[in-house]
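Below is how a single chain appears once it has passed through the pipeline. First comes the sequence as given, then the structure the pipeline wrote out for it. We keep one example in the README because the format questions we get most often are answered faster by looking than by reading.
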Amino acid sequence: MGKVSKSRIPLLLLQLAFCFFCFNYVAADNPNFACDLAASPGLSALGFCNTSWTGEARARDLVQRLTLEEKIGFLGHRTTAVDRLGIPKYNWWSEALHGVSYVGGGSSFSSLIPEATSFPQVILTAASFNVSLFRAIGKVVSTEARAMHNVGQAGLTFWSPNINVFRDPRWGRGQETPGEDPLLVSKYAVGYVQGLQDNVGDPVRLKVAACCKHYTAYDLDNWKGVQRFTFNAVVTEQDMADTFQPPFKNCVSNGVACAMCSYNQVNGVPTCADGGLLAGVIRGDWKLNGYIVSDCDSVDVLYNRQNYTATPEDAAAITIKAGLDLDCGGFLPSHTLAAVQGGKLTEAQVDNAITNSFVVLMRLGFFDGDPRNLAPYGNLGPKDVCTPENQELAREAARQGIVLLKNFDDALPLNASAIRSLAVIGPNANATRTMIGNYEGIPCNYTSPLQGLSAVVTTVYEPGCATVKCSPNDLKLDGAKVAAAAADVTVLVVGGDLSVESEGLDREDLLYPGEQGTLINEVAKVAKGPVILVIMSGGPFQIKQDKVNENISSILWAGYPGEAGGAALADIIFGRYNPSGRTPFTWYDQEYVEQVPMTDMRMRPDPASNYPGRTYRFYTGNPTYMFGYGLSYTPFYHNLVHAPEKLSITLEEGHPCYSEGCNSLELSGSAHCSGLQFDVHLQVRNSGGMAGSQTVLLFNTPPAVHKAPRRQLVGFEKVFLEPNESKNVVFQVDACRDLNVADESGNWKLPLGSHVLHVGDVTHTLTLSI
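Resulting structure:
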């Protein structure tokens, strides 16, 4: 999200300048709470204040009481107050990507609640492959949000999570996403949204309202001059069906209260003006129970930057007709009245849009009076923010996500009692703000890597480079080399920050920024003891040289690990926690990005043009580390206990596949799917001497039909095992849901023939036949 209108000061600067003063209910001469019957008993005569009515009935009653001008005031994210009906101003834009954020201005921090728990950036949390963790984090974030709302420091509508697939490793916003696999992204989306939204005792009501974004095929911000505001994503029906749409389908179908359309065009049409994508798919096919909002200034962008319509009134009309309900920005409030007066739009269409938004506010209790008097969240307040339990969960989330990529000669974990001195080196070695990434709030506190390690052993700190950009003039090798040469162990903490990868800033290569590579190599050459390389980043770098470098004993990827990142890192390095994270993206070499333009949206390889394909599902090259890779301090073994070898599909008499030799079956209906559910039973054994969790990933390699993925994730489970303990893990597989593929036209098919199921080194062939 972002603001682009040149006529206004950028919103982000305003948010930063006024984040201590921007309250959700901002006007002293307006009522504090809508339908506050205790303060204004006369409001009880208004139907929309009657809590015994359904949300839909209350919203319709409210809309019919508004003038056209008042209705239009509810089309922008900063709504106007309607004093005569007791309705205060409201700012729809709050963010909660990995904790309550001040971005958007709908939520803020003050001396009353000066901070909130800051969890790891999403890409690292996703590396845990733990759905219960996704849900637990969402629950804590929504509790803190409700506590802040009760004292006027937060809204109730949070435009999170970002569920775009991390298609290209250069994308600056990849850090905000759950990774490159559509199933993992979907599981994260559903789990986190449930944690945010689920209301105690009443499934219709919402704790807070989440929003899945950015719909759709949005994963380029600013690459070599190509801007997200004008980029046209050319996407095949097949790639749309099996890569870009599944996370949004799962999110909407499982009850999210909002979807956000993106800046970009898809196949020549701005997403916020595409009635097929909005009214047709989101609200029609997937049955959205909520509202659709634009990315900020997207309607302005499609008119002023993309020149998609001839007039601003046309832009207002085409987006509302397409299914847009709310504009993050001021374009619709400014131009919708003229669109209605000009006959381009009807008042009924405006009514429909704001009704969708009002229903969500009804479900949130916004129109139920003072939230402090409402169960079950009225008793929440400052005491419920940054609790010890919440801060410990932030630390646990980082521990579960950190990925051990290399551990030569079992260099890790370190024995603290055997270490007299530890050299801590690198531009991210004492990182604080870097650890929380973007869409951040003000964290409860920070524990940097240096602080976390220094709490365990004596350390010597040398940054080597003052910043991650590490220019030649910034590189200070002498002190770093002296420290490494004298220390028993060296920990190098390198990587990125928002100056090299962020919203509005994509990378152009996969190399370490500046002279970081030189720092790593020179320090590793002279180090007296083992060298532990820690990479803090939102996406991959080229690290094949570090993988094979005998002077580097271990490699840890720590993402952007949140407020407690340094403590979590120390827990893993010193063996207080057994790493179980798995990389949520592919680690490519630099030649990959030299071969593949970021603007090429194709997922599948094209041998004719030497196009290698994207992500582990389609990439034909040899990555340094594949999606799902990660090591542990103890060996885990998998044994297949039971899985069927054959499944037979019964077709009606005379079905053409009996005579034509079909290689797949159409899945438009469910008639063929009966009896195609089965279980895969595995035994997982910890054969080492250290307790830990094993992340069990089940993949399928389907028959080579319809340009199917080389392999695709079917499911994942996390299982904790004591030393020498074994447990059974069961995957419940539905062939029609889990083994299907999209054909060239985007239709779902079930491939016939041999499917190869993989868990670690264990493979099992399942034959589907008619």
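The CA atoms of residues 165 and 391 lie 28 Å apart.

See the next section for the split statistics.
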